[in-house]
Amino acid sequence: MGSNLYKQLLSVMLLFTITSAQAQLPQKLDQAYRTLKADPQAKYATIGLVVLDASTGNQVYGMNEHVGLATASTLKVITAATAFNMLGKDFRYQTTLAYSGKISPDGVLNGDLIILGGGDPTLGSWRYAGTKEHQILEQWVKAIKDAGIKTINGNVIGDDSLWGSSSVPEGWIWQDIGNYYGAYPSALSWRENQFDLQLRPGSATGAAVSLLRTVPEMPYLNVINELKTGPAGSGDNAYAFLPPLTEVAYLRGTWAAGISKKGISASLSDPAFDAAYRLQDTLKRLGITSMGAPTTARRLVAERKVKPAITAKLSTITSPSLSEIIYWFNKKSVNLYGEHLIRTIAWKAEKEATTKNGVKAVVDYWATKGIDKNALNIADGSGLSPGTRVTPSAMANILFQAQKESWYPELLKSLPINNGMQLKSGSISDVQAYAGYYTATNGRKYIIVININNYSGANISGKLFRVLDVLK
Description:
Blueprint: H1 2-37, E1 46-53, E2 59-63, H2 75-87, E3 94-99, E4 102-103, E5 108-110, E6 113-116, H3 133-146, E7 151-152, E8 156-159, H4 174-177, E9 194-200, E10 210-215, E11 222-225, E12 228-230, E13 236-241, E14 248-256, E15 263-267, H5 271-285, E16 289-290, E17 295-296, H6 297-302, E18 312-318, H7 322-331, H8 335-348, H9 355-367, E19 376-377, E20 389-390, H10 392-402, H11 408-414, E21 417-418, E22 421-428, E23 431-439, E24 445-453, H12 461-468
Parallel strand pairs: 5-7, 6-8, 7-16, 8-17, 11-14, 12-14
Antiparallel strand pairs: 1-2, 1-24, 3-6, 3-18, 4-5, 9-10, 9-15, 13-14, 19-20, 21-22, 22-23, 23-24
Helix pairs in contact: 1-12, 2-7, 2-8, 2-10, 7-11, 8-9
C-alpha cells in the first residue's frame, strides 16, 4: 500500500511539474520574442510568431500572428499542401514525343519531330533515378530508331504551347529571373531550366573575371561577361541577367578572389528550345540529320507559322509522383517546382493554367477550410515574389489541418531539419522565416511559424532559433 501511495504521489508531482512548465511556456516565449524585438537587427523589423499545440490547434503563443508578412519560401508548405489535396500524392506528369507528316519506306520523315510538353518540372532533372538528361535523350533516340526514322525532312519542335505564352510570374524581380532560382516555368521544362557557368577570379580586386565554360555548352547563347573580381572573402555576388526568350546574357557583379565555388547557375531563357536543340544535336551525332533548325511552338506562333498536326506518338515519359516532386520541392526549395504546381492547380480547377488562376484556386480551396481569404495575399507558388503576404496564423492553421490528411507523412518527410526541428525555411531580401513542426523532449507537439521582415544586417537565423529553443 505504501508503495502504491508513493507512486501516486510521484505521478501527481510529475503532472504538476508538466502543467507548471506548460503554463510558463507562453511567458518564456514572450520574453524570448521581446529579446529578439529589442535586438538592433530588428529595430525596424516586423516579427510574426505563432506557436500552436499540434494536438488541439490551440494557440500557445502569438505575436503579430494576424499581420500579413512576406513569406519567402515558407509559402511552399501551402503550395505543397494544396497540391496534395487537389492533385493527389500519386499524380504524375507526362511528356510525349510525336511526329507530323509521314515516314517513307526508306526512313525519311517528311514532317517534324515534336516534343509535347505536359508541364513536367522534372524532365531532364538530375534528382531522380529515371529523369536524367541522358536517360531521356536515350529513350527518345530509341523510339525514333524503332520507328525507322533515319532522316528528318523538317524540324525538331519543342511544343511549349500547353500553358500559353505567359512565362515569368508577375511580381518576380529583375535580379532574380536570370539566375537558377528564378528559372521560369514552361509547359516543356528541361533540366530544371538551368545551366552552369564556370568562373575564375582575376589576379587582383577589380580585375576581370574569366568565364571558362558553360555546362552544357550553349553555342546559341551570347554571354557578355562584365564580372569583376571582389576582395577575398566577399563571396559570390555574381548575377546573370537573361530575360526569357532571348539569346543574350549579361553577367554582372563580383566574384571573390580565392572563392572555392566553381561558378554560378543561370536560368535557361527558352527551355523548350534547349530540349529541342539537345535532341537534334544528339540525333546528328548518331547520323540522323534534320533539315530544319530546332524551334518551339511559341516561336512558330511569333513567326506567324502554323504548328504542325500530330500524326503519331512515338514515346511517352511519365514523371515521378507528386510525393517525390514535393520531397525535393521542400528539401531543396526548388522554386521552379512551385511555379509548375501552381499552374497545375489552376488546370485541376478547370481554369487556364496561369499563375494568377493557380493562386486563386489555392486561396479558394483554403477558404472552404475556414481560412480567411484576406489572410492569403499570394503572388506565386514558390514565395520568390516579395509581393506575397500571408499571416503567420493562416500558415499555422494550414499546417494544423495538414496533419489530418493521408498524405501528411509525405509532407512531413519533405521538410528540412532546421535547429533540430522539421521546418521549411524561407529567405529573400531582408526576410527570414521558418514554418513547420516540432516534437519536444516531453512529447508535446507544436506547430511553429516565425517570420521577420525588414531586418538589417545578415545572418539573423540564429536569433530566431533562440526564440524557438524555448520549446525544447
